[in-house]
Amino acid sequence: MQLERDGLTNLAALKVIDCSDLKDFDSTVLAVLLAWQKRLQADGMTLKVERPPEKLKVLANVYGVSGLLGI
Asked: Is 63 helix (H, G, I), strand (E, B) or coil?
């Protein structure tokens, strides 16, 4: 997925992700965020997800990853 690859390439600058503009998405966004989080954690850093829309919170809860993403 292009978004995931681009994010991984620029990950150092992506330690904080503002999700407020997400409107039309599915669980794929969780996979991308988790991939970025995993990569940052391997380097001793974390990903901060800011302003997640309610749908993203619900999806994260359904998939049991809200704690991993801090949302």
From this structure: coil
Residue 56 and residue 71 in contact, taking contact as beta carbons nearer than 8 Å: yes
Q: How many residues belong to the chain?
A: 71
For residue 18, the surrounding DSSP H or E stretch is strand 16-18
What crossing angle do the helices spanning 28-42 and 2-9 adopt, rounded to 10°? 20
pTM of the complete model beyond 0.70: yes
In a structure prediction context, what are the per-residue pLDDT tens digits for the chain, which is 71 residues long? 565 566 666 666 778 889 999 999 999 999 999 988 988 888 888 889 999 999 999 999 999 999 999 99
Mark residue 45 as left, alpha or beta (left: phi above 0; alpha: psi -120 to 50; beta: remaining).
beta
